[in-house]
Specification:
The structure is a single chain. With 359 residues, the protein is of the alpha+beta class. It has ten helices and twelve strands.
Length: 359
């Protein structure tokens, strides 16, 4: 039905006949000449409809946003001063010879360029939501990431192996989703929280290097980093030590960022021991974009009168550390932080304020 995607048109096709299929992204009637921005997954192309092509012009008069169209015409350069450098096809336009309305469209529940949509509205009209540019970019980015991962792991000797989706319940970190068995009344399959047992069987069977981009299911409460179903890059290897696995996974992340985003990450990544990150940040997963680090005060407070600090410093392995915040905090802000740390089990927040004339 078509010869090219809209976003693939360029000056190299000038004077060529092309057939495009897509959605009417925008229609403009400029006093006898109708312009239609035709959209498909690759981008936009401007279609020009003149009255001297009566049938095509009459069809264009009926077009509204999101009508599905099939357009045949000649590629020509845009007039001087009308080039759009923001479009891949911005140098050219298509002079329509035929315009076919493949499918009309009812009034849309929202405009595709509306950025203030509730999640309920988006999910209710998901097919329209997926036409929006951010969603198109997200899904294409996900595809490119998956392809980059497969390319890297394939090149390093890994084998992509599918594992069963209906299995038995196994001890994991969350509850299982259960599927009733028709053949065995009263019995249930469990959807996998991860392919853990299967990939270990593959290692024992001698497959050495396995990977799978796999769907997993965990029946747990929603949080920012937890969803009931998700996709993970699942990898298992044999006969590799800790450093070799780290090097392999670092290479994977570097390859994905380079191939998908054009970003070069450091080689090697900075590496911190567990003891070092706990000493410097108080967490085994610090956000290194935050420059704040803990300051060691244990020796300094061993002889102070404040018992809370002194007793902690005198314990075997005890430690007292402070977070130096280079900012002027009000009493209310400090009280707010006290409430914040209480959510993590802290009984209070001790602080020392340094003024120009001392503590």
């Amino acid at each position: 039905m078509r010869t090219h995607y809209c976003g693939e048109l360029s000056a190299a096709l000038v004077d060529r006949s092309v057939t495009l299929c897509g959605w009417a992204h925008r229609r403009r009637d400029h006093g006898g000449v109708i312009f239609i921005d035709l959209r498909d997954r690759e981008g936009l192309a401007q279609v020009v409809c003149h009255p001297d092509r009566a049938a095509a012009f009459q069809a264009a008069e009926r077009v509204r946003n999101e009508f599905v169209l099939r357009v045949t015409g000649e590629v020509r350069r845009r007039p001087e001063g009308m080039v759009n450098p923001e479009l891949r096809s911005g140098e050219i336009e298509v002079l329509a010879r035929e315009v076919e309305i493949v499918n009309p469209c009812a009034a849309l529940p929202f405009q595709l360029d509306d950025d203030n949509l509730s999640e309920t509205t988006r999910l209710t009209h998901r097919v329209v939501d997926l036409r929006r540019e951010p969603m198109q970019k997200n899904l294409r980015l996900r595809y490119r990431v998956a392809m980059a991962v497969r390319g890297y792991l394939d090149a390093h000797g890994f084998i992509d192996i599918e594992t069963p989706m209906l299995t038995r319940s196994t001890p994991e970190g969350a509850r299982d989703y259960l599927v009733p068995s028709r053949m065995h009344p009263g019995e249930f399959y469990a959807l996998p929280q991860s392919p853990q047992l299967f990939k270990q069987l593959l290692m024992v069977a001698g497959f050495d290097r396995y990977y799978q981009i796999v769907r997993c299911f965990r029946d747990e409460d929603l949080r920012a980093d937890r969803q009931p179903e998700f996709t993970q890059i699942d990898v298992e290897t044999s006969f590799l030590d800790e450093r070799a696995i780290q090097d392999l996974m670092e290479g994977l992340i570097r390859a994905v960022f380079r191939d998908v985003l054009g970003v070069e990450l450091p080689d090697p990544f900075p590496r911190l021991s567990y003891a070092e990150v706990i000493a410097r940040y108080g967490s085994d997963k610090p956000d290194l974009r935050v420059p704040l680090e803990l300051t060691e005060l244990t020796d300094l407070v061993k002889g102070v009168d404040f018992r809370v600090f002194r007793q902690a410093a005198d314990l075997p392995g005890g430690r007292v550390a402070a977070l130096r915040v280079p900012a002027e905090l009000t009493r209310k802000e400090i009280d707010d932080y006290t409430q914040f740390v209480a959510t993590y089990g802290a009984k209070g927040l001790a602080y020392v304020k340094v003024n120009p004339d001392g503590l």
